[in-house]
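Key result, reporting period 2: structure in, sequence out.
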């Protein structure tokens, strides 16, 4: 669920820390702050924008390819495996290097263009919200009252952070995973799935 290629894990994790501090502050009624700086609505908005850019890139291009004649023309496999091939191609394009399964003919104008757009979105349009968050946090003054904020250390915060990452990831990608790779695995095992 931490988006981006090599070297992007730190700022991706910090975005999730900001979201976790905000959610935890709402749950317990304390002022959400991180490193002595208050988390405000703008910080949460740009953090959600960071999360939504790759989601819209991966799921949007996969959905568009799965219903368009151009996207379906590049498939050598139908059904759940074909969806898995398209999902992997756009996930790889958004977060990494743009590789694809061997069964997907990605050397078509449709896939060349859409995977290139997903790379562009994954590289540049994700960094803009992170830079906006960093700039906004840098201009804030540090508060001295650390007792009013939610503690951001310890096992409780680590478990809340892991929970937010898992819940955001599950709510975002589990439906398409259930239609593609999970169904494909169950079919491979011989499960009686009725379509």
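The corresponding designed sequence is given below.
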């Amino acid at each position: 669920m931490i988006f981006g290629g090599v070297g992007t894990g730190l700022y991706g994790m910090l975005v999730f820390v900001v979201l976790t501090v905000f959610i935890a502050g709402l749950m317990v009624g304390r002022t959400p702050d991180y490193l002595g700086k208050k988390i405000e609505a703008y910080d949460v908005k740009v953090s959600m924008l960071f999360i939504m850019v790759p989601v819209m890139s991966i799921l949007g291009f996969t959905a568009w390819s799965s219903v368009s004649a151009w996207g379906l023309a590049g498939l050598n496999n139908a059904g759940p495996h074909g969806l898995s091939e398209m999902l992997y191609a756009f996930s790889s394009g958004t977060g990494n290097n743009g590789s694809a399964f061997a069964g997907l003919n990605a050397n078509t104008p449709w896939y060349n263009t859409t995977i290139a757009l997903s790379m562009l979105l994954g590289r540049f349009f994700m960094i803009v919200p992170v830079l906006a968050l960093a700039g906004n946090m840098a201009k804030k003054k540090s508060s001295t009252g650390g007792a009013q904020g939610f503690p951001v250390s310890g096992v409780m915060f680590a478990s809340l952070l892991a929970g937010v990452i898992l819940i955001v990831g599950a709510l975002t990608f589990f439906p398409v995973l259930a239609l593609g790779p999970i169904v494909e695995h169950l079919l491979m095992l011989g499960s009686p799935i009725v379509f």
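The mean pLDDT is 85. The two ends are 29 Å apart (CA to CA). This case is discussed further under Risks and Mitigation.
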